[in-house]
Specification:
The chain has a single domain, classed as 23S rRNA-intervening sequence (de novo design (two linked rop proteins), Up-down Bundle). It is about 70% helix and about 0% strand. It has four helices and no strands.
Length: about 130
């Protein structure tokens, strides 16, 4: 693999960050240093962890960083739910972001499963097997 920029997971994560920034730009200004900032940080963490993990050139490190990316993605999903419950975003927007999050989650799981471990076997990407 030449670069993290070649990974579909990284590309989809960058697209998600862009949509999160567009969404949070419409949040109330009093949320700027609260939910807006937290949601932006969590979303930026997803592609950042993918890039950092791939750049380490170690399968173990890459798997660890991909798990961090999945954790950040779960944070984003939780925070979108909170934003929707507070009427900061529409049902349609929350659903669209949810679709993107689900797709990226599946891509990350597949990527995790494709990375050989020390013995050269592939992992399922599920907790306890990675």
């Amino acid at each position: 693999m030449a670069s993290y920029r070649d990974l579909i997971a990284w590309k989809k994560a960058i697209e998600l960050v862009t949509e999160i920034y567009r969404t949070t730009a419409k949040f109330p200004k009093d949320e700027l240093y609260a939910l807006t900032a937290q949601l932006r940080r969590a979303s930026v963490s997803v592609p950042s962890n993918i890039a950092e993990g791939q750049a380490h050139y170690s399968n173990a490190d890459f798997r660890r960083y991909l798990r961090h990316a999945r954790g950040s993605l779960a944070e984003v999903e939780t925070q979108i739910t909170i934003a929707h419950n507070l009427n900061y975003t529409s049902t349609e927007n929350a659903a669209e972001l949810g679709k993107r999050i689900d797709e990226l989650s599946r891509i990350l799981a597949g990527l995790l499963a494709s990375i050989p471990d020390k013995l050269g076997t592939r992992n399922s990407g599920l907790r306890g097997n990675v």
